[in-house]
């Protein structure tokens, strides 16, 4: 085996395309990050402090908000630093850490959405057994496993990437991604590529089956239900479906860009499409649930109205 000079840092060349308006992009992404933190933290505080919201559906929404903060924080702070920097070099350690955090965020998001679909199925199709099937013990176990399993699952796959030696330095993205990094390996990575591609589809397969089963059963029940029950089911499921579609579209963009030649798409368009799954779900999920869910909306208004009332007293 020939001696190779191992690379310990990489260049994120996509930032070169953003140099013409770097300060404008910096302000936009900074404001976006602040808004994401604000809307998610408001939702988390409201659900955690209000005992009437300590029910399965709301705690799953809270878990989704926590994951949104985790995902956006894994990406945006480093983007803001690079936008103000004239060097787009990232160390191997930082690159690997970012990949692990971003991909774990994606796996956790999909798992939580799958568990939420099952929760809606039980609530609509088995309302009399809901509190038995979604008891506090089972609820907290579901929330814990929806975080632990994805982190362990991706770690087992990611070990193969960590063990590689890299010779190339150029990553044509604004963040580190697993497949582009693996392509920079000094040696043949066909096995890693096949396993990574398989994991991309195998991983969410169980979640997709759960979602299809849950909504298939909900649809079947709704066909024979009264108009009132149908309306209630639609009102309950619509926010979850919007969240699921929004995140799935982002995942699809990322998989297509990683695996297929997208040179015919303008470079800036590719950059922003690759950011979709990390920016829009954390931004829109709290808005979707905050607006559509009357109980959450009431307590959000109560939170801010109580602050306004306390202001004159504090003065």
Describe what this molecule looks like in 3D.
The structure is a single chain. The chain has 315 residues and is mainly alpha-helical. It is 76% helix and 3% strand. The chain has 12 helices and 3 strands; from the N terminus they run E-H-H-E-H-H-H-E-H-H-H-H-H-H-H. It has helices at residues 22-49, 56-84, 92-125, 130-133, 136-162, 178-182, 190-202, 205-223, 227-259, 267-274, 276-292, 294-314, and strands at 9-12, 89-91, 170-171. Strands 2-1-3 form a 3-stranded mixed beta sheet. The N and C termini lie far apart (75 Å).
Averaged pLDDT: 87
- Helix content range of the residues, please? over 70%
The gross shape turns out to be globular
Q: Percent of residues in beta strands?
A: under 5%
Rounded Rg: 22 Å
Q: What brief labels describe this structure?
A:
single chain
List the helices and strands and how they pair.
Elements (H helix, E strand, L loop, with lengths): L8 E4 L9 H28 L6 H29 L4 E3 H34 L4 H4 L2 H27 L7 E2 L6 H5 L7 H13 L2 H19 L3 H33 L7 H8 L1 H17 L1 H21 L1
Helix pairs in contact: 1-2, 1-11, 1-12, 2-3, 2-11, 3-5, 3-8, 3-9, 9-11, 11-12
Q: Could you give a quick summary of the protein structure above?
A:
The chain has 12 helices and 3 strands; from the N terminus they run E-H-H-E-H-H-H-E-H-H-H-H-H-H-H. With 315 residues, it is mostly helical.
């Amino acid at each position: 085996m020939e001696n190779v000079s191992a690379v310990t840092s990489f260049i994120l060349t996509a930032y070169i395309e953003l140099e013409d308006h770097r300060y404008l992009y910096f302000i936009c992404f900074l404001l976006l990050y602040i808004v994401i933190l604000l809307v998610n933290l408001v939702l988390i505080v409201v659900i955690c402090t209000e005992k009437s919201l300590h029910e399965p559906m709301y705690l799953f929404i809270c878990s989704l908000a926590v994951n949104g903060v985790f995902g956006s924080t894994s990406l945006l702070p480093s983007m803001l630093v690079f936008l103000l920097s004239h060097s787009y070099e990232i160390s191997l350690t930082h690159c690997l850490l970012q990949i692990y955090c971003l991909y774990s965020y994606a796996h956790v998001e999909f798992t939580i959405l799958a568990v939420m679909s099952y929760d809606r199925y039980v609530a609509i199709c088995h309302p009399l057994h809901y509190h038995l099937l979604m008891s506090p013990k089972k609820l907290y176990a579901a929330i814990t496993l929806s975080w632990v399993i994805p982190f362990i699952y991706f770690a087992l796959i990611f070990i193969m990437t960590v063990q590689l030696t890299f010779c190339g330095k150029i990553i044509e993205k604004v963040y580190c991604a697993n497949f582009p990094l693996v392509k920079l390996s000094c040696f043949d990575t066909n096995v890693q590529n096949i396993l990574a591609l398989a994991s991309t589809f195998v991983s969410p397969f169980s979640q997709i089956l759960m979602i299809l089963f849950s909504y298939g059963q909900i649809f079947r029940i709704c066909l024979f239900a009264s108009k009132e029950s149908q309306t209630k089911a639609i009102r309950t499921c619509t926010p979850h479906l919007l969240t699921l579609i929004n995140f799935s579209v982002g995942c699809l963009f990322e998989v297509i860009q990683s695996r297929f030649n997208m040179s015919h798409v303008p470079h800036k368009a590719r950059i922003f499409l690759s950011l979709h799954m990390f920016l829009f779900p954390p931004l829109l999920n709290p808005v979707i649930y905050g607006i559509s869910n009357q109980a959450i909306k009431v307590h959000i208004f109560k939170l801010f109205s109580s602050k306004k009332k306390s202001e004159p007293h504090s003065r």
